[in-house]
C-alpha cells in the first residue's frame, strides 16, 4: 500500500540526488519534501528546482549558513517538529552534509525509521567534516543504500549488515536523464565562447582546500599555468576565501571564473571538457559516467573505483602534480561499471515500500 516519506535535502548535490528518487516515489506514494535551507542562493538552490521540475518544498526551514554546531542544531530542532507533525512512515536522507546528519540524528532520537542513500562511503580522513557525517549517519540509519559492493563491504566491516541494499548510484540515474537534454538545450558553450574539448572544467569547494591558504594558492597557481583555458564555476565559499586571502584578482586574471551554473549547463560542461579538475565528490563520478578524465585535487577519495579504473587520479594540492596530470589524459581502454545501471531510484522506492509494508 501507499507509503509516506519525508525527504530531507539542503545542499546542491542533494537536490540532484533527490530529483531521481522523488519522481519515482511520487508516481504512487506520498512525499513531503523538506529543504533545510543550508544552500539558499538562487544558483545553489532554486535553479535546480526549476530545471529539474522538483516540486516546491513543503517545508523550507530557512536555516542558512552558520558554524557546524549552530547549523546542525537548528536543523535538528526544526526537523523534529516537522516529523512529529507529519508522522511519515520513513525519513529519507542523502549523502554526507550537515543536512544529512541532522535528519539522521533527529529521526533516530524520536524513533522514526530512517533510510540513507549513499551509505558506506569512507575517505578515512576524519578531519573531513563529511566523513564524520557519513559515519554517524550510517550508524543511525535503519535502511542503508550503498551505491557499490565496496561500500556495502565497508558497512559490513563496521558491523552493519542488516537492511543493506546495494542499489547503485542515484547520481547515475540523474545524469542519464540529463545528458541528452543538456546537449539539446544547454547554450553554455556558446555563452562562454568555448569550443568542445578545448577547455578544462574545474570546481573547488572542499574545506581542506578553501580554508587553507597554502593549498588554495597552490591549486590556483596550477590552474593559472594550465595548458588550456580553465573554466571555474565558483562556489561562494571559495570566492569568499579567495577575496579574504587577497587572491581574487590573481585568480580572475587567468582563470575563466563564472558564477555557479545549473545542472544541465554543468553536465554539458563536463561532457565537452578535455578533463575535469575538481575536489567535489559528485563531480568525480559524473566525469566518470561521461567518459571524461578526472583529476581530483584531494589526498583521498570515497569513490575509489573511479581511481582504480584509471579514469580518476588523486593529485592533492601540489602545484607540480596538478600540472603534470593536467597535461596527461587518463582515458583507459576499459571502463568498469561499479555503480549500478542507472536504476537506483526505482530500487530504492521498491525497497522502502516492501520494508514498510512487511
Ligand atoms: C556543503 C557540504 C559539503 C558539500 C557542499 C556541496 C557540509 C558540512 N558541507 O559545503 O559536503 O560538498 O555543501 O556544495 O554540509 N554560502 C553562500 N550561499 C549559499 C550557501 C553557502 O554564500 O547558498 C557560503 C556561506 O559563506 C557559507 C559557506 O558558503 O558559510 C559554506 O556553506 P556550507 O553549506 O556551510 O558548506 P559548503 O561548503 O557549501
Ligand atoms: N554542479 C552544478 N553546477 C555547478 C557545480 C556543480 O550543477 O556549478 C552539480 C554537479 O553536476 C553535481 C553537484 O552539483 O551534480 C555536485 O555538487 P558539489 O560539488 O557542490 O558537492 P559534492 O558532490 O562535493 O558534495
Please supply descriptive tags for the structure shown above:
binds uridine-5'-diphosphate, 2 domains, Rossmann fold, 358 residues, six-stranded parallel beta sheet
Describe the structure.
This protein is of the alpha/beta class and 358 residues long. It folds into 2 domains: 4-169 and 340-357, Rossmann fold (3-Layer(aba) Sandwich); 178-326, Rossmann fold (3-Layer(aba) Sandwich), CATH 3.40.50.2000. Helices cover 49% and strands 14% of the residues. The protein has a 6-stranded parallel beta sheet with strand order 3-2-1-4-5-6, sandwiched between helices. Helix 10 runs parallel beside helix 16. The chain is globular and about 55 Å long. The termini are close together.
Q: Quick check: average pLDDT?
A: 97
* Spatial shape: globular
Distance between the termini: 10 Å
CATH-scheme architecture of the largest domain = 3-Layer(aba) Sandwich
The number of domains is: 2
Helix and strand sequence: EHEHEHEHEHEHHHEHHEHHEHEHEHEHH
CATH-assigned fold name of the largest domain? Rossmann fold
Instruction: State the name of the first-level CATH class of the largest domain.
Output: Alpha Beta
Task: Summarize the biggest pleated sheet.
Answer: 6 strands, parallel
Q: CATH homologous superfamily of the largest domain?
A: Glycogen Phosphorylase B
Give the proportion of residues in helices: 40-55%
Total number of helices: 17
* Coarse structural class: alpha/beta
Q: From the alpha carbons, calculate the radius of gyration and give it in angstroms.
A: 20 Å
Biggest β-sheet: strands ordered side by side in the sheet: 3-2-1-4-5-6
E-strand count: 12
Amino acid at each position: 500500500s501507499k507509503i509516506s516519506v519525508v525527504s530531507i535535502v539542503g545542499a546542491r548535490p542533494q537536490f540532484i540526488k533527490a530529483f531521481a528518487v522523488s519522481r519515482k516515489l511520487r508516481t504512487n506514494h506520498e512525499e513531503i519534501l523538506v529543504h533545510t535551507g543550508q544552500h539558499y542562493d538562487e544558483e545553489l538552490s532554486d535553479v535546480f528546482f526549476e530545471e529539474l521540475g522538483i516540486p516546491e518544498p513543503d517545508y523550507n526551514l530557512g536555516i542558512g549558513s552558520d558554524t557546524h554546531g549552530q547549523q546542525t542544531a537548528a536543523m535538528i530542532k526544526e526537523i523534529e517538529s516537522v516529523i512529529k507533525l507529519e508522522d511519515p512512515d520513513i525519513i529519507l536522507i542523502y549523502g554526507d552534509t550537515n543536512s544529512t546528519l541532522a535528519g539522521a540524528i533527529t529521526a533516530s532520537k524520536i524513533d522514526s525509521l530512517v533510510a540513507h542513500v549513499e551509505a558506506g562511503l569512507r575517505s578515512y580522513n576524519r578531519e573531513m567534516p563529511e566523513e564524520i557525517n557519513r559515519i554517524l549517519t550510517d550508524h543511525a540509519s535503519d535502511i542503508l543504500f550503498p551505491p557499490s559492493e565496496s561500500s556495502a563491504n565497508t558497512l559490513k566491516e563496521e558491523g552493519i549488515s542488516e537492511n543493506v541494499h546495494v542499489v547503485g548510484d542515484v547520481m547515475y540515474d540523474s545524469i542519464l536523464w540529463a545528458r541528452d537534454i543538456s546537449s539539446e538545450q544547454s547554450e553554455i558553450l556558446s555563452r562562454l565562447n568555448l569550443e568542445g574539448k578545448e577547455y578544462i572544467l574545474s570546481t573547488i569547494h572542499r574545506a581542506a582546500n578553501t580554508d587553507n591558504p597554502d593549498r588554495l594558492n597552490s591549486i590556483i597557481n596550477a590552474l593559472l599555468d594550465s595548458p588550456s583555458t580553465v573554466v571555474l564555476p565558483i562556489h561562494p565559499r571559495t570566492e569568499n576565501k579567495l577575496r579574504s586571502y587577497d587572491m581574487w584578482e590573481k585568480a580572475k586574471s587567468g582563470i575563466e571564473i563564472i558564477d555557479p551554473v545549473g545542472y544541465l549547463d554543468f553536465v554539458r560542461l563536463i561532457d565537452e571538457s578535455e578533463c575535469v579538475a575538481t575536489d567535489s565528490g559528485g563531480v568525480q563520478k559524473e566525469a566518470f559516467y561521461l567518459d571524461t578524465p578526472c583529476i581530483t585535487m584531494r589526498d583521498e577519495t570515497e569513490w575509489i573505483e573511479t581511481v582504480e579504473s584509471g579514469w580518476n587520479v588523486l593529485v592533492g594540492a601540489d602545484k607540480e602534480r596538478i600540472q603534470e596530470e593536467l597535461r596527461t589524459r587518463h582515458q583507459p581502454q576499459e571502463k568498469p561499471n561499479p555503480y549500478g545501471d542507472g536504476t537506483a531510484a526505482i530500487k530504492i522506492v521498491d525497497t522502502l515500500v516492501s520494508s514498510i509494508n512487511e
